[in-house]
């Protein structure tokens, strides 16, 4: 069996995808570079050679999640440049649960100065992307992000999106109040 050599860019992307899976399961503190290496099928020293540290790998993973979200919103805005259009695009990301979990793990790890600075910068950038794409006011963008955080939490609890479980009554009531709750997301 012959193995195809990946370019450096392809290998980097492969490791970030593996890191999304690993960090989604264990968070920053509970994940090792060895776990990421095993998922990617490479050696742990190779992961360190490419990223330098677990922290740098986590930061690359956070950037990947933020970039994926921005890419999704820009594509949606090309069709419908409204908050509703961006909201529906975000709900589609519920199928990529690991992305949402890593997003939340970034906030949880924000007490670390380097991680916190990077996570705040990504969040700020996304805020301005929403304003740019929709023309939203600061208050409208704040409300959009507040709703997005709720959807993120509900999605990672698996009570929204594909493969969802039956929520307890209080959460079901919250879900019933969501705009576009009937959408297939």
UniProtKB/TrEMBL annotation:
One of its GO terms (molecular function) is transcription cis-regulatory region binding. It comes from the Bacteria. InterPro entries: Homeodomain-like_sf, HTH-type_TetR-like_transc_reg, HTH_TetR. PROSITE patterns: HTH_TETR_2. It holds the Pfam family TetR_N. Keywords: DNA-binding. Residues 9-69 form the HTH tetR-type domain. Residues 32-51 bind DNA. This is TetR family transcriptional regulator. The lineage of its organism: Bacteria, Bacillati, Actinomycetota, Actinomycetes, Micromonosporales.
